[in-house]
Amino acid sequence: MRTIGVIGTAKNTGKTTTLSFLMKGFHNSGSNLAVTGIGYDGEEVDNITLLPKPRLYFEKDTVIATSEQCLKNSEANYELIAETSVDTPLGKVFIVRITKPGMIVLAGPNRMVALKEIIELIKTKAGCDVLLVDGSLNRMSPMTILDKLVFTTGASRSVNIKKLANEMSLIEKIFSFPLTNYTNIDPNISFFFKVENGKTIIKKLHLDLNNSPAIETQISNDVKALYISSLLSVQDFNDIIKKIKKNIGESKVELIIHSPIMLLLSGDFSLISIMLERMSDAGINLTYLQKPELSAVTINPFYPKLENYHYTPSYVDKEAFESEMVSVLESPVYNIKEGDNQKFFEALTDY
């Protein structure tokens, strides 16, 4: 089963429109489609701007994983496929198949282990070909285990199109670092790899960032690689970079982290960019234990503009926006409401 995540960089950047486009495409292609979401994001009206938001409409035979309360309040009919052990503030998550089309709000797993359970149940109980996962920058941690990702960005995040392009360029750079060649790594335990008498020795790394001398005694000049299992802040990464540079000097060292998503969650984009430059200057090669493929970027020129104490729909120049994004990104860029987007759908079905 193919798994595809859609990550919105902010509210109103076109995530729901992108999901709806993909759902329609897979439905029309005859695929057995499943959909779930990370956490909850299902307002009919934006809570801040009071502008209407697009909702997800589920066709007959679509499989969805959502919470009990969302199912009770839906306008669609469905049949139960499986009950999960995943609890949410809106009740337990159920996997159902739509028997009568309609709107349903998604409220799904917010942890990786819970998403794994749902993926496995959808594969074994529903026999689906494709799973689409709805997410956002602040709810994307579990999406590490997916096959492909689409990022949606737009003027609702910033009306400065150069800033938006630079942000997506940084995200693309983060996803460009390779997977590690080291194998048999326990993803829950930090390790360092060193060479002793011509053999690679694997030792547990006691990662107490508040105990600088203890870490420095472990990071010596014969260390070849470190695997950091925990989610770190940009400042934590900078501290580790300093220790590597101090103790290892000019020797190359590989820094392995679990996924690019962990890096994206480490702090502000501008700070991450500076940190990556410091990492490169220190001779550190960044690799990942696991990473989804960044397959495409969709853009939305809409943004809510505040006028006379209320918000009204407004737009940046869509041609200039798309041109700026295309000029700095290697990933394909699509305005999901404009032109022929068949290539976008094909990019996500090319396995």
Topology:
Elements: E1 2-8, H1 15-28, E2 33-37, E3 57-58, E4 63-67, H2 68-72, E5 77-88, E6 91-100, E7 102-103, H3 112-126, E8 130-136, E9 148-154, H4 161-176, E10 191-196, E11 199-204, H5 212-218, E12 223-228, H6 234-248, E13 253-257, H7 260-264, H8 269-281, E14 284-288, E15 293-300, E16 302-307, E17 310-315, H9 318-328, E18 333-335, H10 342-349
Parallel strand pairs: 1-8, 1-9, 2-4, 2-8, 9-15, 12-13, 13-14, 15-18
Antiparallel strand pairs: 3-7, 4-6, 5-6, 10-11, 10-12, 16-17
Account of the 3D structure:
The protein has a nine-stranded mixed beta sheet, sandwiched between helices. The protein has a five-stranded mixed beta sheet with strand order 11-10-12-13-14. Helices cover 31% and strands 31% of the residues. Residues 44-54 have low confidence and may be disordered. The longest helix is centred in the middle third of the chain and has 16 residues, at 161-176. α4 runs parallel beside α9 and α6 runs parallel beside α8. It contains ten helices and 18 strands. It is of the alpha/beta class. The protein has helices at residues 15-28, 68-72, 112-126, 161-176, 212-218, 234-248, 260-264, 269-281, 318-328, 342-349, and strands at 2-8, 33-37, 57-58, 63-67, 77-88, 91-100, 102-103, 130-136, 148-154, 191-196, 199-204, 223-228, 253-257, 284-288, 293-300, 302-307, 310-315, 333-335.
N-C termini distance: 11 Å
Determine the strand fraction and express it as a percent band: 25-35%
Instruction: Please outline the major beta sheet.
Output: 9 strands, mixed
Strand arrangement within the widest β-sheet reads 5-6-4-2-8-1-9-15-18
Order of helices and strands: EHEEEHEEEHEEHEEHEHEHHEEEEHEH
Tally the helices: what do you get? Answer: 10
Q: Which percent bin holds the helix content?
A: 25-40%
Shape: globular
